[in-house]
Amino acid sequence: MNDVIHATIGEAGPQAPSTFDILTHGGPLGIAVLLLLVGFSVASWAIIVVKFMALRAAQTTSVEFLEHFWQSKRLDEIFTRTDQMPASPVAQVFRAGYQELVKVKQREAAQAEKGRDQIGGGIENVERALRRAALAELTEMERLVSFLATVGSTSPFIGLFGTVVGIMKSFGEIGAKGSANLATVAPGISEALVATAAGLLAAIPAVIAFNVFTNRIKILGSEMESFSSDFMNIVRRHFF
Q: Looking at residue 177, what is its pLDDT?
C-alpha cells in the first residue's frame, strides 16, 4: 500500500509555471514586447495622474476666477488677483486681453498728447490677444493627451503581435517534437495570453483617461470662448 502511495506521489506532474517564469522564458522578442507594453503602461499612468491633477486645478481655479470677475468692478483689481491663479486658463486669457487693452489705451493716450489722429484697430488687437491666449492654453492642456490615444490604439495590436509570436512558437514546438500534447503547446499559448493581457491592461486605462480628459478640455475651451465674448462686450461698452 505504501509503495502505491509513494509511486503516485512520485508520478505527480510538474507544477504549473508562474507568470514570472512565462515572462522570463518568452524569448527575446516576447520579452521585448512585454517590456514595451509595460513602458507604455507606466508612462500612461504618469500622464493620467499629472493631467488629472492639472485639469482639476484648472477647473477649480477657473470657477473661482469667474466668481471674482463678476463680483468685482475694476479690471485692474481682477488682474492683480489673477497672479494667484496660474492654473486657471480663463484667468490667463483675461490677463492677455487686459494687458493688450492697457497697451492700446496707452498708445492712444500718447497719440492724443502729440496731437495726432488715433490709430484704429485697437479693439481687434485685444480680440486677437484673447484668441492667442485661448489657443495657447488649449495647446498646453492637450499636451501629452494624444500619447494616451496612441497607447490606447496601438497597445492591443502590440499585444496581438506577441500573441501571434507565442502561437508560432507553439506550432514550432509541435513540429520539432512531432506531437501536439498539452505540455508542448502550453508554454507558447501562455506567453501569447500574457501578451494579450498586457496589451489590454495598457490600452484600457489610456482610452478611458483620453476620453475623460478630452471632454474636460472641451468644457474648459467653451468656458474660455464664452468668457472672451463677455470680456469683449465689456471692452466695447466702456473703452471704445
A: 67
The pTM of this model reads 0.79
- Say how far apart CA 2 and CA 237 lie, in whole Å: 102
In a domain, 15, yes or no: no
Give domain status of residue 18, yes or no.
Answer: no
Structural domain contains residue 129: yes
Record the cell numbers describing residue 231, joined without a space: 470680456
Number of separate domains in the chain: 1
Give the domain range for residue 185: 32-239
